[in-house]
Write a structure and sequence with these properties.
The protein is of the alpha/beta class and 508 residues long. Helix 11 runs parallel beside helix 13, helix 16 packs across helix 17 and helix 16 runs parallel beside helix 18. It contains 18 helices and 18 strands. The radius of gyration is 26 Å and the shape is elongated.
Length: 508
């Protein structure tokens, strides 16, 4: 269970560790870790490897200089692009520069930005190491540095980022300054120091960080605070996994009612209901706001009902897929929230909530388990901001929603963020761009409802549903069915496979 730490927490850990160590010890350890990671990426014929190291003006540049020194002594052909600080450098950085200049590494002679870009493009590099800017970057990368980063991003060789890809906010996963004014290095791999960081795994983080490895720099465990954020992992919900008993029956596994399907939008509740059924719910009702079909020809086990006539106290509710925004739909949502049933709110139910303070108050006062599954625009409507603001700090947005609405929140997107009512954050690691297509959210809501119906607690049901949903997409892409053109309905049998595999490996 990988903990995630904010910049403020990491600064405190680093400061406490530095009090126990000789000056510069942490930078030296970072440099050794960076060199070890680089050696894993280089060929056995290391003397032929051409490595370019970008050493920026801050302490991240000091880490890069220490890395360059170690690689030079290891036999690689190392070239350093060094950008000295405008003000007085820290003593440990001065010492790192001295060691690098005393090593076999070669320092490129540059007098202007154009010279630096010429160095980047002038050699067929085996590896590029990014040590331009670390977690302390507060302003967008602009001007000559922005042009340099753009040139680096065009390289064909692997790129190893030290601590964080330059230009990426390690707390939020947003590019510092935003996509229009900011730029960040697109790394193949990121070696992050002291502790893992939320921004490497959500928003733009997954596109810029590549594979993430953590080096804790041998800091004593007692200096780390209890984390308020983690990466999703089976270990977080494995205690809820159960194998099927021979003596069980359909009533043993709960009932789900999917409420939605206004005129012209019947497909959304069908997707959610089919998922609930094939992921283990004992009985599933598809309750239509519009005229219900007699049955689902592809899944006749579903029971199609009129939502107006259904007893909302008789099943776990999945409310919103294709529900529409009519006054009658709002009344139906109010009735559902008045029930004592566990509920999953998605799609149009979230939009109706956003438009009604009374519904939001009713939700916040509810005692039964509740999971909300907004995408960024739905979350923006609920908080009265823009989707851009949501994406600028996804963890904070998810926390705010969970607190205001007294529910578990699943903020969908790259690196889905789950927020508990107590402020705990989990960032999901499964899933891929195949999920960026219509209907996959309906599938996720049906899966959440199914786990709730099978007796899972609210928080663990959300964690497992998001993990399984992403794992199904990963399995399909591995098999060649995507990411381009994968459809939501294809996820459903893959989710069944993932659920059964999880039960076989971890069920009690």
């Amino acid at each position: 269970m990988t903990p995630l730490f904010t910049i403020a927490e990491l600064r405190a850990i680093e400061h406490a560790a530095a009090q126990r160590l000789p000056e510069g010890a942490l930078m030296q350890r970072a440099g050794q870790a960076g060199a070890n990671q680089a050696l894993d990426l280089l060929p056995f014929t290391i003397h032929r490897a051409q490595v370019l190291v970008l050493a920026g003006p801050g302490n991240n540049g000091g880490d890069a200089l220490e890395t360059a020194a170690h690689l030079g002594h290891a036999g690689a052909q190392v070239t350093v692009l060094h950008f000295p600080p405008a003000d007085a450098a820290a003593a440990e950085r001065i010492e790192a520069l001295r060691r690098a200049r005393s090593s076999p590494a070669r320092f490129a002679a540059i007098t202007e930005a154009a010279d630096a870009r010429a160095v980047v493009t002038g050699t067929a590099w085996t590896l590029m190491i990014d040590g331009l800017f670390g977690i302390g970057l507060a302003r967008p990368i602009t001007g000559d540095f922005a042009a340099l980063v753009a040139t680096v991003n065009e390289l064909a060789c692997p790129i190893l980022a030290l601590d964080v890809p330059s230009g990426l906010d390690s707390d939020t996963g947003a590019v510092v300054g935003g996509g229009k004014t900011g730029i960040a290095v697109r790394a193949t791999r990121t070696l992050t120091f002291i502790g893992d960081k939320p921004g490497l795994h959500t928003a733009e983080g997954r596109d810029h960080s590549g594979a993430v490895t953590v080096s804790n720099l041998d800091i004593e465990p007692e200096l780390f605070p209890a984390p308020r954020a983690r990466l999703n992992d089976v270990a977080l919900f494995a205690h809820c996994v159960r194998r099927r008993r021979h003596s069980s029956h359909k009533g043993s596994h709960g009932s789900v009612a999917v409420v939605g399907g206004a005129r012209g939008m019947a497909g959304a509740p069908i997707l959610a209901a089919r998922t609930a059924l094939t992921s283990g719910a004992g009985r599933v009702y598809a309750c239509f706001v519009g005229e219900p079909p007699a049955f689902d020809a592809a899944q006749p086990e579903l029971m199609c009902r009129s939502a107006q006539e259904y007893d909302f106290n008789s099943a776990v509710l999945v409310i919103g897929p294709g529900m529409g925004g009519s006054a009658s739909s709002a009344e139906m949502l109010a009735s559902a929230l008045h029930s004592q049933s566990p509920a999953v709110l998605d799609a149009d139910a979230l939009n109706l909530l956003a438009g009604s303070e009374a519904l939001r108050t009713q939700l916040a006062q509810r005692k039964a388990p509740c999971i909300l599954t907004p995408h960024p625009l739905e979350a923006a409507r609920l908080l009265g901001v823009t989707a851009t603001e949501i994406q600028a700090d996804r963890p904070s947005a998810a926390r705010m929603l969970a607190s205001r609405l007294a529910a578990t929140v699943v903020l969908k997107g790259s690196g889905t963020v789950l927020a508990a009512r107590n402020g705990e954050i989990v960032i999901n690691t499964t899933g891929n761009p195949a999920l960026a297509t219509a209907g996959t959210g309906d599938v996720l809501s049906g899966l959440c409802g199914s786990l709730l119906a099978q007796g899972w607690p609210e928080w663990e049901a959300a964690l497992a549903a998001v993990w399984l949903h992403g794992m199904a997409a990963d399995d399909l892409v591995t098999e060649g069915a995507g990411p381009i053109g994968l459809t939501a309905s294809e996820l459903i049998p893959a989710i069944r496979t993932a659920v059964n595999r999880l039960a076989a490996q971890h069920g009690s």
